């Protein structure tokens, strides 16, 4: 919206860059949106909020000190991976004072990895997106087993749950039956948490705040996010996936990002690309399940890598399509 | 052969494109060859034949709808990955009605992945080959563990067999002893099945039909396929690999493709490239064993990825060679 | 040093190329340095020395026969991966006569993989470094499980040790306490072995010879190697890693290579790049721990891949930095 862009431009540069960095988690280079996201993160939990703040500041300063593109830094592109690194490490590792050193190191590395991927992907006009966050966090999370100074925190139920308990307790029918107070509640919770889980928040309110933040930048963006969370609830229901995971939105946060990327940000908006986004969203659910089972033996979560993989495939393919070019 | 090209050109476009798609599994952009392959697939099993048909049609139509290169579509390049996706999923997953949805989705994805890889690899003049089929099938096969609607079928003995039972019951001597009726039979079965297993057929006749089909397009191609299956039987015997796997041709289908690719399709045919193809074929056997053991813990088969990896290495390397350029 | 370059140029071409190949393990295209490295290898063990010799000769001849760049061959670039392949396979697999065939095949493949990576990475001005050695050895080492002709040798204690026994017996305090004869000895052993383990030698003298060899080519190189081994001992101590591994130098050989690559070879030498090298060295320790735990279930060692990954990230990133360009 017009007014939010004016506020964004009126802010002092450092504040604007940092807030845009938070906003870019959902592809929104807008400080107002970023502020709402940051507030939402603190609503979800003070530690998560602080960790995100440390992350976004560290990764942005790193990019500045290492001399990466000023335009990219100004757009907040060196901020969103750090924003995600912080809460991620605090969710999956035990909360100790040393962990802050880990968050700082990981945020530094995320900016180096992002610059490396920008170098590789820019000739193809393909974004690195959240892949630096994923690769960095995976590395730090699996390294922890070797170091006494760190240990694993209580791990959330996640799509990585062993196949044995992955069968749904509740049949698809329960979700798809005629609308009762209970099914409405289930859908409402799953859909909003699906958006919130992009930044690791298991919280309905956070999801709503994220949607509002996105809508301030773009209605189409918010619509695609809604479609994505809907796909991420409906498709796993139809395929018979674990109902706890569905209700926590853990199948939905990847399709949310995929559908926003394909249907709004990186291809020309049209009915055609909206349909393409839908296909990509459905495939992201399957990719999520596949990658989760693939990583389960090492105890790593998928994070947003299913989104990254499917988005890359579709954007690379769009590059040689007569209909959609990016 | 001349006549087969004339028949190929005389066919109506849709039929020609689909049949060429089947033919391209063995690098043959020739509808007559494709028809023989398709007949062979139905000989191997009606379900496999139907699944291949659904796959090739779906992936080709997808490429057309997404606006990928008409020349590539016409050559059948958007068909062979779909051809392989179908029978593969029906071999490794349980045969249920829902599986057809999975085959359609996977065939669509295989065309998107192919386009993405074409975008990346074309500047290097390197083919994506069967890698989209492999990546897509791996993803769907490992995703299945999370979904109630699907389950694993009876899995074939494969190179993924645990090391404990991987020791050969029969010493290499038995294969290499003076020619008796029994050893002749063993070699005959292993060599033909080695070709048939490229499309998952554990069937001598299918292998012979495949060889005839290839010979119709190119004698050198058929010769390289024969050399490849020979390497894929002899080398594992000498290295002391599991004899059941050897006799089922499960060490041979990858070298078959490698030797065809290096010795016939992608480099200028000469004595030098024939020798290079031989080295590549031998290394493919080792790569097959390595990848199989690497994937065993997750329960995934290698499919044709050993061929893809070795071929990529040799073709990239050929790109900077003074003697062989591609 | 001047005199070593004069000796290098005065040698007959084949001898010079082979010795430079050995020298390139530490980025030194200098035959005198290479000769000292080779002597050190034989000091470490005659089999290791012989295997390295067979490896470097095979991989260099392969590059010549396959027609790869004469300049690269002359600089010894097609030799160092073979140099590493030989001792690596003899360390991790059982010493049998057949193993020599394996060493020859792996050295051939290492040159093909190097050429392939040169083709891919040269446009970015990024070196393939030891990645062909790592990829080739991983493939051969994991293939072995399928073949009766080979078996695993007694495996060294390595960072792949299960988490259960990975906890340090000795607290960091013991290493960092006031300097006694014992702590001095511990540091001396760990620091020199850290350099020696780059070529799999668990030997103080070999490490010293390597450092002398590097110093003959470049003082800055030797200084960076020393800093690298220091980082590779201090950082894991502070993080609380397994003390046996630290004392054997198994956390140090990767940072040694990383700091030499970033702080001396591939970026313009300055205070800035020295600092960058330090950050890269610290991250290499974490990457080492992460990759080791990642590979542990398959029983593979990290080899020098942590160095390769971190170096690639930093060099790709440097390519778009205003301050450091490569």
Automatic annotation (TrEMBL), chains A, B, C:
GO terms for cellular component: plasma membrane. The keyword Transferase does not apply. It is a multi-pass membrane protein. It is found in: Cell membrane. Its main location: membrane. Keywords: Cell membrane, Membrane, Transmembrane, Transmembrane helix. The chain crosses the membrane at residues 21-43, 49-68, 75-93, 99-118, 130-147, 198-216, 223-242, 248-267, 274-296, 302-320. It comes from the Bacteria. GO terms for molecular function: urea transmembrane transporter activity. The record marks 304 as: Important for channel permeability. Pfam families: UT. Belongs to the urea transporter family. This is Urea transporter. It comes from Nitrosomonas aestuarii.
């Amino acid at each position: 919206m017009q007014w939010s862009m004016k506020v964004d431009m009126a802010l002092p540069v450092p504040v604007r860059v940092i807030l845009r960095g938070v906003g870019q988690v959902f592809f929104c280079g807008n400080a107002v949106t970023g502020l709402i996201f940051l507030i939402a993160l603190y609503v979800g939990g003070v530690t998560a909020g602080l960790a995100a703040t440390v992350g976004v500041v560290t990764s942005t300063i790193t990019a500045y000190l290492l001399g990466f593109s000023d335009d990219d830094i100004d757009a907040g592109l060196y901020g969103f991976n750090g924003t995600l690194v912080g809460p991620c490490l605090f969710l999956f590792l035990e909360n100790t004072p040393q962990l802050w050193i880990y968050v700082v190191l990981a945020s530094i590395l995320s900016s180096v990895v992002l610059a490396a991927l920008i170098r590789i992907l820019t000739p193809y006009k393909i974004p690195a997106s959240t892949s630096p966050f994923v690769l960095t966090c995976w590395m730090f999370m699996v390294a922890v087993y070797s170091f006494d100074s760190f240990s694993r925190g209580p791990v959330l139920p996640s799509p990585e749950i062993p196949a044995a308990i992955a069968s749904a307790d509740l049949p698809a029918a329960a979700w798809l039956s005629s609308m009762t107070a209970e099914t409405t509640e289930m859908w409402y919770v799953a859909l909003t948490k699906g958006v919130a889980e992009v930044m690791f928040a298991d919280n309905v309110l956070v999801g709503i705040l994220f949607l509002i933040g996105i809508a301030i930048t773009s209605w189409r963006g918010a619509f695609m996010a809604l479609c994505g969370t809907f796909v991420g609830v409906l498709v796993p229901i139809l395929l018979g996936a674990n109902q706890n995971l569905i209700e926590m939105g853990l199948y939905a946060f990847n399709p949310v990002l995929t559908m926003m990327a394909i249907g709004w940000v990186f291809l020309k908006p049209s009915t055609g690309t909206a349909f393409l986004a839908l296909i990509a969203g459905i495939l992201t659910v399957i990719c999520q399940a596949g990658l989760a089972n693939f990583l389960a033996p090492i105890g790593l979560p998928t994070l947003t890598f299913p989104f990254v993989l499917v988005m890359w495939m579709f954007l690379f393919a769009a590059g040689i399509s007569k209909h959609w070019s990016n």
